[in-house]
Amino acid sequence: MNTALIGLSGLFGLAIGSFLNVVIYRVPFGLSVVSPPSACPNCHREIRPYDNIPVVSWLILRARCRGCHEPISFRYPLVEAGCASLFAGVAWHLGVSWLVPAYCALMAGLLALALIDFDHLKLPKNLVWIHLGGVGALLALSSGVYDNWKALWIAAICALGWASMFFVINFVSPRLLGFGDVRFSLVLGLALGYLGVDYAVLGFLLSNLIGLSITVILVAAKRLTVNQPVPYGVFLAIGTVVAFFTGATILAPFHLNDIFY
User: Fold this and answer.
1) Strand stretches in the chain, DSSP E
2) How far apart are CA 211 and CA 138, in angstroms?
3) R_g of the chain, CA atoms, integer Å
4) For residue range 169-198, what is the model confidence (pLDDT) as tens digits?
């Protein structure tokens, strides 16, 4: 059953990854993700269903548009395969659980928002709220099924804790961390906090450690100036993913649950 769940989650992730490519491309410009249908940005030829099979079509077409033969970016299949891997990883990590949909939704949003932030140095407000609402609703569904409302309350407190700390960071250094990251932190604190306060603490530390380390390295290498804004949402997403998948291993020696519970 678990193997089937992993496989189905991976296939579903491929389809969602294809949709995320549309989201990543259109949302920053305020465009609809529903219409018009996907088309080649060069010749504007509408992409037919048989040319829109995740990863497979890119390979069959040899990374070129069927109409104008312009190259198709490697990023498209990479996002699709990345989303499939994250979804399959969630299913493998959690097993048969009502939490799987919630954390797959988390991963999909992290992937889309991180890449938008990388490209445009912004985290679209509407997309962040949709992400928060979707993950929150699915976590509430899990709480209802398992009658585990305590976890949801702890998650809400962790979300507010994350947002409060990021609000302070934004107030002190808005160039380092924009207000979009403060909103984004609500989702991350909620999702990790549902797994435990220790996960929320770990995710916060990892995200900021990764962000500060990479920023210092780029400044030292003169690839970035001190006053230049950075896509901090990318680091928050990476830290959250690492905390989710490795938290149990990293936290085991510290017995933080003995403090918080």
Assistant:
1) none
2) 29
3) 19
4) 888 877 777 888 999 999 999 999 999 998
* Residue ranges of domains in the chain: 1-84, 97-261
Residue that is written with structure tokens 């990388």 in the block = 118
Q: Tell me if residue 71 falls in helix, strand or coil.
A: strand
- Peptide linkage before 36 cis (omega within 30 of 0): yes
Task: Return the DSSP state at 72.
Answer: P
Residue with tokens 């991976």: 10
Check: pTM over 0.85? Answer yes or no: yes
CA 238 to each of CA 3, 51, 139, 215: distance values in angstroms, whole numbers, following the listed order? 26, 31, 21, 14
Q: How many residues does the chain have?
A: 261
Q: What letter represents residue 94's amino acid?
A: L
The amino acid at 132: L
Residue 96 pLDDT class (50, 70, 90 cuts): very high
Q: Which of 192, 175, 178 is nearest to 123 (CA)?
A: 178
Give the number of other Cβ atoms within 10 Å of residue 47's Cβ: 16
